[in-house]
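Late entry, 1-O-phosphono-alpha-D-glucopyranose complex.
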Amino acid sequence: MPVRIVETMPFDDQRPGTSGLRKKVAVFRQKHYLENFVQSIFDSIAAPPGSALVLGGDGRYYNRDAIRIIVGMAAANGFSRVIVGMGGILSTPAASLLIRKRGAFGGIILSASHNPGGPEGDFGIKYNSGNGGPAPEKLTEAIFAKSRSISQYRILDGVTIDPDKIGETILGNMVVEVIDPVSDYAELMESLFDFELMRNLLQGDFSICFDAMHAVTGPYAREILENRLGAKPGSVVNAIPLADFGGGHPDPNLTYAEDLVKVMYGGNSPDFGAASDGDGDRNMILGRHFFVTPSDSLAVIAANAHLVPGYREGLSGVARSMPTSGAVDRVAKSLNIPLFETPTGWKFFGNLMDAGRVTLCGEESFGTGSSHVREKDGLWAVLFWLNLIAAKRMSVEAILKEHWKQFGRNFYSRHDYENLPLEAGKDVIETVRARFPDLAGSILGKYRVDFCDDFSYLDPIDGSLSVGQGLRIIFTDGSRIVYRLSGTGTEGATLRIYLESFEMDSARHGLDAQDALLDLISISREISRLEEKTGRVTPTVIT
Ligand code: G1P
Ligand code: ZN
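Prediction complete; structure with ligand written out below:
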């Protein structure tokens, strides 16, 4: 099969964000668009001849076409093996695992995470390095630079592999290995959690509902929860990955996972509910009529990790992104282990894990994970909770109440204003920044401002400095307001306002978070002159 060298022209919009390159499907379908970006990856990583590449995606529209193109390009660029999930399917955490387990040079994951799919939806592509984690910024910038000057790409003509058949095919000088996307991952989960104990729980009268949201975790959850752990058939719903996610928005939160929320808050609801996102790295945990914030979930997991076999030896440290609540900080303090506060995005955790400094990490945006892979991992978090419930023999709600009693409760909420004009988004941020000098020391209702800053992070491992990571207004009682613009949206600007207050008094732990945060919410809108700058008074999504 001949290698074809194709002349091309650069596109100027191929700068990968924190989670790879995400664009509308129509953008990716432009002639040479995907090929240019893939060649820019290959040129930047300069994999030595004989390297292996892991390849798979969340099954969204254009996944299959992209797999075929990338396989042909890998063969023409000197890879000796491409490991592809059957049907082109690999969840993000499973891809991370395979890169590590198979000693691959890296991997390409096709996903736009929780963004809607289908011909009118989004597509995405990201490169993960040999440690299994997202490409560091140095590399994504190099890829972007290449994409600006590219003039040709290499591809093997006439690639016809059958991604639905497990086995090996020779393609030029390369082997294409189609594997079961689930089995390695399921095996790893069995090594971390007490499956015996969880089987007893799930085969008894404890009922669960896992909503795969028509996305990638369906096959993983069916195999692990129903087949291996014996949850009742039908416990996993929306389990078949669809190219358009059934027209939904596969983001596990109270707004987009509304079907699951209805089940969990309805009559005769299951004891435990959970959902994951498009590519399987996010998770939402619910009890009967009860929602666990991701920040609390991280804190509870850290405080109880000794109950889970894979973590019995203890935690080397924990990390959270800056906007994530400080609930886990107090757990770290009581365990006497280090706590790291990093910028938003998973890649900052990777360095800490590679250096053995942290075992657990998480973000307020429904992402939790550990050093078992280098991505956040939705199903892993669900299994962690099930293992805890089985070990403690307590309901989700009782576990949280006990936790708050011991550590206090961080009321927490994130208000998103999606699809703002780009200028309006920037304007809000600059308005807040301009008020910093006046705010310091001032009194706003019952709050006194301690300090304000634009969060920056000096990576303790590689010494790199990340600036401009979100505006913080910190009050003397530890309450906070944080403003930042999303780096992952594909339409206009998304403004995120994060609100947090701390309460030690257990008589007040039962309050609704929105009620407890009422004053801070109005202060946050006043400081940013939100309505004047954006015309908005209500967030599009509250989590
Ligand atoms: C969002 C989340 C962030 C997460 C990222 C990728 O990024 O807020 O925590 O790491 O998606 O899943 P944002 O859109 O806020 O930049
Ligand atoms: Zn995701």
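The first helix runs from residue 25 to 28. Will revisit in the morning.
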